[in-house]
Amino acid sequence: MMNLIIVKIGGNAIHSLTPDFFEQLKNWRQAGKKVLLIHGGGPQISQLAEKLSIPTVKKDGIRVTDEATLSLTKMVLLGNAQPELLTRLNQAGLAAVGLNAADEHLLSGNFINEAEYGNVGNISAVNEIALSKLLNDQIGVLAPLALTSEDHWLNVNADTAAADIARLLKASQLYLLTDVPGVLSEGEVVSQLIPQDVQTLINKKIITAGMQPKLLAACAAIHAGVHSVRITDKLTHHGTILQEVVSEP
């Protein structure tokens, strides 16, 4: 879907979306672009887990997801974060539909390492025909959950999910919205990167642990044919653009 733009929004960011975010979505829709929003909900999941005395365990930055945590994750993503984002879109006059893996089996996935992380996976396939139809007339709001071939639910990191979906659908652009203005080096935003630079910056410890999964996911998307990945705090900010080849200024 070369006219598809995918935007990943973190759980915290849903509360702080500004008018220019919705204006940009309107501009894309008016230009005939299909828009898919992938939303997280990590902070809300952790807060609810604490209230319910369900321990939060993370290994290698991955939330270990037992059955109780999986139920909690589905509850937060589908019952809290997604309706909140849909409400914001509707208030801005944008037609939008909430989606999850069980809608026409939109997202298929595999366990990453069940013994180590529990019900955590990555996305292996997207029902492109069904999704494309859904995105003709409205913005899609999709939770980062997948279903195995046995219909077992999997929790998927939202950055990884967005990059996997962009890669599988060959989206034209992927935006990873974060709470910093881009990839920072000595306090300054790195305006452009190519995938070959990323491992170097990780080795030099310029890229922090929190940014590493975003960039590695972004590199995989670029290698699979996504034209550009932008890491930024606002759709209207330049941020850091990751491309196969750095364009001339």
Automatic annotation (TrEMBL):
The record marks 8, 214 as: Transition state stabilizer. It catalyses: N-acetyl-L-glutamate + ATP = N-acetyl-L-glutamyl 5-phosphate + ADP. Substrate binds at residues 41-42, 63, 155. It is an enzyme of class 2 (transferase). The keyword ATP-binding applies. Its main location: cytoplasm. The keyword GTP-binding does not apply. This is Acetylglutamate kinase. It comes from Secundilactobacillus collinoides DSM 20515 = JCM 1123.
